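Propose amino acids for all 298 sites.
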């Protein structure tokens, strides 16, 4: 069944930012290798929630996550799944406080009324201890799954403090892709971009080119990531890279100034710089397309 999303539902999500809407990724009408039919479906991406942040860039940081959960739950048709693409919590070097923030985050998102919720870490969650506490709360930091005729891969490019995926994980990815369903489109979730967007700001993956090299021969690949707190689209050959806005505050455009501090809060336009998008893929098309939408009361 094709998903029809009304404007009211989009605006409910749009009011909270950090949301990417993906639909039609399932090669509609095409048979899967197991003999079933691929189907249309939709999922919600939330990114960079930074639970535990306190500061002037968002004076309502303690309530935004719960409001987003409520907005997703209010949809007339629930998404097939929700994925959080990193920086679930805000950085702290205190291990006890890190555990407390992850516990609180997990309790809030447990209220999502969806069949499945997927997580991957951001550097705020994992770089201080190479992901040890993150894995205590959320399990493996890299994995794959199949859904509706699409092969999904979650990669960890933050537990290494240098921002690398690493030899072991790249070897795992190569093997995983060899065993994916034949001709299945591939969607990759990461936190950092896999290409050199702004290495001076940490907006890159040290060995991201090796990952892209593995993905390049595949006919239909999209990478959904966070980290940069803004919508951004980039192509590396046949691979489309799509960044999501943050749920907490926007950051400036890549290399637009001397640093990448949060854009100051504007009470008159509280959602400026935060947005959502609709992403679609059709079996007869040549790839993924994204339609960017402005926030609600910007």
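Proposal:
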């Amino acid at each position: 069944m094709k998903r029809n999303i009304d404007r009211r539902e989009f605006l409910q999500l749009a009011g909270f930012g950090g949301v990417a809407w993906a639909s039609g990724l399932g090669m509609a009408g095409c048979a899967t290798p197991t003999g079933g039919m691929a189907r249309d479906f939709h999922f919600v991406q939330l990114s960079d929630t930074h639970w535990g942040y306190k500061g002037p860039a968002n004076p309502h940081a303690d309530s935004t996550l719960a409001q987003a959960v409520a907005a997703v739950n209010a949809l007339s048709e629930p998404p097939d799944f929700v994925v959080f693409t990193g920086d679930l919590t805000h950085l702290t070097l205190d291990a006890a406080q890190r555990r407390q923030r992850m516990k609180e985050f997990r309790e809030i998102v447990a209220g999502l009324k969806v069949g499945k919720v997927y997580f991957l870490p951001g550097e705020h969650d994992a770089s201080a201890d190479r992901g040890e506490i993150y894995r205590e709360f959320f399990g493996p930091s890299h994995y794959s799954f199949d859904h509706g005729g699409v092969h999904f891969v979650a990669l960890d490019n933050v537990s290494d403090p240098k921002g690398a995926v690493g030899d072991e994980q790249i070897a795992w990815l190569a093997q995983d892709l060899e065993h994916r369903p034949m001709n299945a489109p591939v969607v990759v979730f990461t936190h950092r971009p896999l290409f050199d967007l702004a290495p001076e700001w940490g907006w890159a993956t040290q060995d991201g080119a090796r990952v892209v090299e593995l993905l390049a021969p595949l006919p239909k690949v999209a990478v959904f990531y966070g980290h940069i707190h803004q919508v951004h689209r980039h192509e590396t050959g046949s691979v489309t890279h799509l960044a999501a806005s943050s749920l907490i505050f926007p950051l400036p455009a890549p290399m637009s100034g001397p640093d990448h501090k949060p854009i100051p809060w504007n009470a008159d336009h509280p959602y400026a710089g935060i947005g959502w998008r609709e992403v679609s893929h059709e079996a007869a098309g040549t790839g993924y397309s994204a339609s960017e939408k402005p926030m609600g009361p910007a």
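Helices lie at 7-14, 64-73, 95-109, 123-126, 132-138, 167-178, 208-215. The chain is about 20% helix and 20% strand.
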